[in-house]
Specification:
With 290 residues, this protein is α/β, with parallel strands linked by helices. It folds into two domains: 164 residues, Rossmann fold; 94 residues, Rossmann fold (3-Layer(aba) Sandwich). It has eight helices and ten strands. The protein has a six-stranded mixed β-sheet with strand order 1-2-10-7-8-9. It has a four-stranded parallel β-sheet with strand order 5-4-3-6, sandwiched between helices. It is globular, with a radius of gyration of 18 Å. The termini are far apart. The mean pLDDT is 95. Belongs to the cysteine synthase/cystathionine beta-synthase family.
C-alpha cells in the first residue's frame, strides 16, 4: 500500500488531439498537476527535504524557510507536514488566496511580501539564523536532480525514446535543468526549449529574472532555444487547453503549450513534450478563469 509520498511522479503523458496544428508531429503534455500536491514542484520539494534529512542538515527541531511564488510552497508544506517539520513560506502578496489557504491547511506559516525578490531576500536573511534552514530552490542542486532522477527518465520511457523536443516554463529552472541533463545523455540531439515572459508580461511560474536574482542552478548552455511568450497568449492557451483538450491548468502551462505548438508548426516530423506544471483550480480566484 502506497503512502502519499510514493504517489509523487509517474504522472500521465497525454497527446493533444485538438490544438496541434501539424498532423506529422506529436505533441504531448506531461500532467504534473496529477502529483498529490498538485504540481511539478512536488518532485523537487521531496528531493530537497529528503536529501537534507539524509545528510543530517535538518531535523524536527529545525525551522525551515523558503521563498516561493506558490507551487513550491504548497509542495513543501505538504512534505514538511509528513516529516513532522516546521516551515515558514514567504510569498508575494498578489498570490491567489487558494495558495495561501492550502499551505496553511498543511500547517505551514505563511508570510506575504510585495514581490518574489523581496521574499527571497527575507528568506535568505531569516535562513541564516541559528536553528533555521533555507532550502533555497534557486541554488539547490537537489531541485534539478529531482528531475534528472525522475521526470527525465519518465519522458524517455513514455515516448519510447522518440522525444525530439522538450519544452518547459523557466522559473527556478530546476525542471528544465534536470530534464536537459538526462535527455541529452540519452540523445544529444533532443532539443531543450525554455519559455519566458515577454517584456512587461506577468505569468505566474515563469520569470525573466534580473541578473542579481538569476537562479544559481541555471546553466544557459543546457537550453538550446528560448521562446518568449506573452501574458495574453499564455492566458488564452490555458483557457483553450481546458475547453478543447480537457487539460485544466495554469498560465505557465499555457505558456509552455504556446511554445510547443509554435515548434510544431516549424517541423516536418517530431515528438514534442511540454510540462503541464499544475492544476487550474488554484487560479479560480484570479482573472484567468474569471
Amino acid at each position: 500500500m502506497a503512502g502519499i509520498i510514493d504517489l509523487i511522479g509517474n504522472t500521465p503523458l497525454v497527446e493533444l488531439t485538438k490544438l496541434n496544428p501539424n498532423p506529422n508531429v506529436k505533441v504531448f503534455a506531461k500532467l504534473e498537476g496529477n502529483n498529490p500536491g498538485g504540481s511539478v514542484k512536488d518532485r523537487a520539494s521531496l528531493n530537497m527535504i529528503r536529501s537534507a534529512i539524509e545528510r543530517g542538515e535538518i531535523n524536527k527541531d529545525t525551522r525551515l524557510i523558503e521563498a516561493t511564488s506558490g507551487n513550491t510552497g504548497i509542495a513543501l508544506a505538504m512534505i514538511a507536514s509528513l516529516y513532522g517539520l516546521n516551515i515558514e513560506l514567504v510569498m508575494p502578496s498578489n498570490s491567489t488566496r487558494e495558495r495561501t489557504l492550502t499551505m496553511e491547511a498543511f500547517g505551514a506559516k505563511v508570510t506575504l511580501l510585495e514581490n518574489i525578490e523581496a521574499c527571497r531576500d527575507y528568506a535568505e536573511e531569516k535562513g541564516a539564523a541559528e536553528g533555521s534552514f533555507l532550502l533555497n530552490q534557486f541554488a539547490n542542486s537537489d531541485n534539478y536532480m529531482a528531475h534528472y532522477k525522475t521526470t527525465g527518465p519518465e519522458l524517455w520511457r513514455d515516448t519510447n525514446g522518440t522525444i525530439t523536443h522538450f519544452v518547459s516554463a523557466m522559473g527556478t529552472t530546476g525542471t528544465i535543468m534536470g530534464c536537459s541533463r538526462y535527455l541529452k545523455e540519452k540523445n544529444p540531439d533532443v532539443q531543450i526549449v525554455g519559455c519566458q515572459p515577454t517584456e512587461n508580461s506577468s505569468i505566474p511560474g515563469i520569470r525573466r529574472w534580473e541578473p542579481a536574482y538569476l537562479p544559481k542552478i541555471f546553466d544557459a548552455k543546457r537550453v538550446d532555444r528560448t521562446i518568449d511568450v506573452s501574458e495574453t497568449d499564455a492566458t488564452q492557451m490555458a483557457r483553450r487547453l481546458a475547453k478543447e483538450e480537457g487539460i485544466f491548468s495554469g498560465m505557465s502551462t499555457g505558456g509552455a503549450c504556446t511554445a510547443a505548438l509554435k515548434i510544431a508548426e516549424e517541423l516536418t516530423q517530431g515528438t514534442i513534450v511540454f510540462i503541464a506544471c499544475d492544476r487550474g483550480d488554484r487560479y479560480l480566484s484570479s482573472p484567468l478563469f474569471g
